[in-house]
Amino acid sequence: MTHVILTLTRVEAAHLTNLVGQFQELVTEPVGDPALERLTPDVYPDDAEASSEFRQVTRADLLGRRAHDAATVSNDLSRVEDAGVADALSPVDVSIADLEPWLRTLSALRLVLAGRLGIADGAEHEEDDPAYGLYEWLGYRLEGLVQVAEQDAS
Amino acid sequence: MALAEPEIVEDLSVAPAVPWQTVVWDDPVNLMSYVVRVFREYFGFGHDAATARMLEVHRDGHAVVAEGAREQMELHAQAMHDYGLWATVRKAPQ
Q1: For residue A62, what pLDDT is reported?
Q2: Better-scored residue on pLDDT, B17 or A89
Q3: pLDDT tens across A44-77, in order?
Q4: What is the rounded distance in angstroms from the CA atom of residue A44 to the CA atom of residue A37?
Q5: Phi/psi of residue B29, each to 5°?
Q6: Does B86 touch chain A (CB under 8 A)?
Q7: pLDDT > 90: what percent of chain A?
Q8: Residues 28-67, chain B: which have Cβ within 8 Å of A?
Q9: How far apart are the first and last CA of chain B?
Q10: At A92, phi and psi to the nearest 5?
Q11: Quick one: which of A56, B1, B13, B72 has the fewest CB in 10 Å?
Q12: Would you kindly state where each structural domain of chain B is located, as residue ranges?
């Protein structure tokens, strides 16, 4: 397993920590949030009963794995020490021992945001919605990590 | 993170008489590069095969990524959900 150093600005690290924290709440206390539907989709689209049965058996485990991934990411981020506003744009290195939880969590965050923005339904979304910038930024950071993972693999 | 080792049915001739399929569907959110990565990591496809499968999903709206016993296909679908891909299970069209 290759160790990866992800360089973020401090303000990015703070945002990411916050988002991952919210995501941890979402998956550990799932309370009928529509965002969860996309994380545990119907496995039998034409058979509601079989889908619901499958979900009953597997959902808790799946969300448990999500929570575990998010905790790993959160833990990696927690080693970034706090800094003042003056240092918001200064770079900080996040040490990542295992990329997989990062890839899965950043993807899941994008799915959740996309649901909130209406992107998942192909509906028109407001590009000036501040959440859209967050979504795009997560995509940029995820793309960077995928490239690193692919270099490792080849 | 304990993911079951995927058992990939690549040789369709050994698939059961009435095979089931794991199907991955196109979605507007997941990055193409990420989908390729998932196919490589989980199914062990080479880069070209993974890219071809991803493009199939993108172009046709879906692609069959595995075929075999129903339980196995459910495991694959669950693994795809772990990665945030939109996967379903169906009986192979006769």
Answers
A1: 95
A2: A89
A3: 999 999 999 999 999 999 999 999 999 999 999 9
A4: 14
A5: -105, -50
A6: yes
A7: 65
A8: 28-31, 33-34, 36-37, 40-41, 47
A9: 37
A10: -140, 140
A11: B13
A12: 16-91
Query: What does the buried/exposed string (b/e) look like for B50-63 if buried means 16 or more CB atoms within 10 Å of the residue's CB?
Result: bbebbebbeeeebb
C-alpha–C-alpha distance, residues A9 and A83, integer Å = 11
Q: Do A62 and B30 touch (CB under 8 A)?
A: no
- Residue B5: predicted pLDDT: 64
A129 touches chain B (CB under 8 A): no
- The alpha carbon of A64 is separated from its chain's Cα centroid by a whole number of angstroms, namely 14
Residue B14 in this model has a pLDDT that exceeds 70 = no
Write the ipTM: 0.90
Contacts of A41 (CB under 8 A, 6+ apart): B81, B86, B87, B88
pLDDT, tens only, B27-62: 999 999 999 999 999 999 999 999 999 999 999 999
Helices (H) and strands (E) in chain B, counts: 3, 3
Mutate to test the interface with A, among B72, B86, B89, B90 (most CBs of A within 10 A): B89
Q: The pTM is what?
A: 0.88
- Chain B CB contacts of A52 under 8 Å are none
Q: Which of B73, B18, B31 is nearest to A54 (CA)?
A: B73
B16-91 in CATH: which number?
A: 3.30.1390.10
